[in-house]
Amino acid sequence: MKIFLLKNKNGQIVEKAADIMSESSPWIKLGIKRKDCIKTIKSKRYDFYYACENRELAGFVLLENFGSFKGYIKILCVSEDFRGKGIGKSLIKKAEQIIFSHSKNVFLCVSSFNKKAFIFYKKLGYKRVGILKDFLVKGRDEYLMRKTKGPILKN
């Protein structure tokens, strides 16, 4: 498996990524449609890294590396066909490598109903630091999680 940065966010990889995302949880439960997935993936706010296995898109991660949430993992998505094979862990490790090169904190959100994802992130060293009530849609909360190497400021 290899991980690549997609600089030109047009074409088949984006289309396939949007298919994978819009056809899986938590995005189905949140009511996020394919057109919204494409819009998010194509946004200039996020760097798009993707993993391929046997020339097939296995998963991707979107990173926000500027602004208030510098060091934020916006989305981690792994195709259902590739789950349980270490793809998500590899994508998170790549994201952490990039983020920790310029920041002491990595942040992400996980839907409160997405128990498997919450456990996955906890095993990777993330801690819940807050709850965002009705953040994406009414009736669905998001847990803000953080992995840190220490405070931003030195005393």
What do these coordinates show?
This protein has 155 residues and is α+β, with helices and mostly antiparallel strands. Helix content is 30%, strand content 36%. It is built from 5 helices and 7 strands. It has helices at residues 12-22, 27-30, 34-42, 87-100, 115-123; strands spanning 2-6, 46-53, 56-64, 72-78, 105-111, 127-137, 140-148. Strands 1-2-3-4-5-7-6 form a 7-stranded mixed sheet, sandwiched between helices. Strand 3 and strand 4 form a beta hairpin. Helix 1 crosses helix 3. The longest helix has 14 residues, at 87-100. The radius of gyration is 15 Å and the shape is globular. The termini are far apart. The model has no long low-confidence stretch (mean pLDDT 92).
Radius of gyration: 15 Å
Binned strand content: 35-45%
- Reading the helices and strands in chain order gives EHHHEEEHEHEE
Helical/strand content category:
alpha+beta
What is the strand arrangement across the widest sheet?
1-2-3-4-5-7-6
- Count of alpha and pi helical runs: 5
Assign a percent range to the helix content.
25-40%
Distance between the termini: 42 Å
Tell me the number of strands. Answer: 7
How is the topology of this model organized?
Layout: E1 2-6, H1 12-22, H2 27-30, H3 34-42, E2 46-53, E3 56-64, E4 72-78, H4 87-100, E5 105-111, H5 115-123, E6 127-137, E7 140-148
Parallel strand pairs: 4-5
Antiparallel strand pairs: 1-2, 2-3, 3-4, 5-7, 6-7
Helix pairs in contact: 1-3
Summarize the structure.
This protein is α+β, with helices and mostly antiparallel strands and 155 residues long. The protein has helices at residues 12-22, 27-30, 34-42, 87-100, 115-123, and strands at 2-6, 46-53, 56-64, 72-78, 105-111, 127-137, 140-148. 30% of the residues lie in helices and 36% in strands.
